[in-house]
Specification:
The chain is of the alpha/beta class. It has a single domain, classed as Rossmann fold. Helices cover about 30% and strands about 25% of the residues. The chain has helices at about 5-15, 15-25, 30-35, 55-65, 75-85, 120-135, 185-195, and strands spanning about 45-50, 70-75, 90-95, 105-115, 135-145, 170-180, 205-219. The protein has a 7-stranded mixed beta sheet. Helix 1 packs across helix 2 and helix 2 crosses helix 7. It is globular. The chain starts with 6 loop residues before the first helix and ends with a strand.
C-alpha cells in the first residue's frame, strides 16, 4: 500500500487509472462551472488548463462552458495518453507549468486544477510568472484546490494554499461537495493507494465529504 508521501507520485508514474478514478469522483454535480461562468462569454475565449491529467475536468467544463478553444498541458505521458483515449477531440500537450511553450498574451483564461498546491515554492513562483506572461491583459487565472475539510472529516487541505494570497491569488469561493465513487470498495482502493493509512473513510454509498476552494487572479 502506498504511503501518503509516495502514493500520488506512484500513481502518476505507474497507475494513471487510479488518478483518473479519483478525478471522476471530484465535483460530481458540476458545481465548478457555475463559479467559473461569470468570467465572460466562454464561447469567445481561448482557455489553457495546467495539469490537465486524464482530462476529466476539461471534458466536463468544455461541455458546460463551450469555450472557443481549450488546451490541456501535463507532464505525465500516461495520463495524456489516457485523456486522448477517452476524448480524441481534446487538445493536449506535454509541457511543464514552469516553462509554458506559448507566446506572450496568447490566452484569455488559464485554469489550474489540483496542481499548484503541490509545486515547491520556487516552481510555484515560476508558474505564476509564466501564467502572467501568457495571459492577455484583462485575462483571468482560475485555481482549483482542496479546501480544509469539514468537522466530520474529508480530504485534507492542499499544501501550498496558505501562500496563495501573498502571490496575488484571491479566494473566490469554497464549495461543499463530496467525492462520489461508484462504490465503497472503489473509494477504499483508490484513496488507500493514494493516501495510505491517511485515506478518509467513505460511507456506504462510496462518498467522502469534500470541499473545493476556487481562487482567482485577474491580470
Amino acid at each position: 500500500m502506498a504511503s501518503p508521501q509516495n502514493g500520488w507520485l506512484r500513481a502518476y508514474a505507474e497507475a494513471p487509472e487510479i488518478l483518473d478514478g479519483f478525478a471522476r469522483a471530484e465535483d460530481p454535480d458540476g458545481l465548478l462551472a457555475s463559479i467559473l461562468q461569470p468570467t465572460a462569454t466562454w464561447s469567445q475565449l481561448r482557455v489553457l488548463e495546467l495539469g490537465c491529467g486524464s482530462g476529466r475536468l476539461a471534458s466536463a467544463l468544455r461541455q458546460q462552458l463551450h469555450p472557443a478553444l481549450w488546451l490541456g498541458v501535463d507532464t505525465a505521458k500516461a495520463l495524456l495518453h489516457l485523456a486522448r483515449q477517452k476524448d480524441a477531440a481534446m487538445l493536449l500537450l506535454r509541457a511543464r507549468v514552469e516553462a509554458l511553450p506559448f507566446a506572450n498574451q496568447s490566452w484569455d483564461v488559464v485554469v489550474a486544477s489540483w496542481v499548484l498546491a503541490y509545486l515547491p515554492p520556487p516552481s510555484l513562483r515560476r508558474c505564476l510568472s509564466e501564467v502572467r506572461r501568457v495571459l492577455r491583459g484583462g485575462g483571468c487565472f482560475w485555481v482549483i484546490e482542496n479546501a480544509a475539510p469539514p468537522p466530520q472529516g474529508g480530504m485534507p487541505e492542499d499544501g501550498n494554499t496558505k501562500a496563495f494570497s501573498s502571490l496575488g491569488l484571491q479566494l473566490e469561493q469554497v464549495v461543499a461537495t463530496e467525492l462520489r465513487f461508484s462504490s465503497q470498495q472503489e473509494a477504499r482502493e483508490i484513496t488507500q493507494f493514494l493516501m495510505g493509512a491517511a485515506a478518509p473513510q467513505a460511507d456506504s454509498r462510496g462518498c467522502i465529504p469534500h470541499r473545493i476552494a476556487v481562487y482567482r487572479l485577474q491580470v
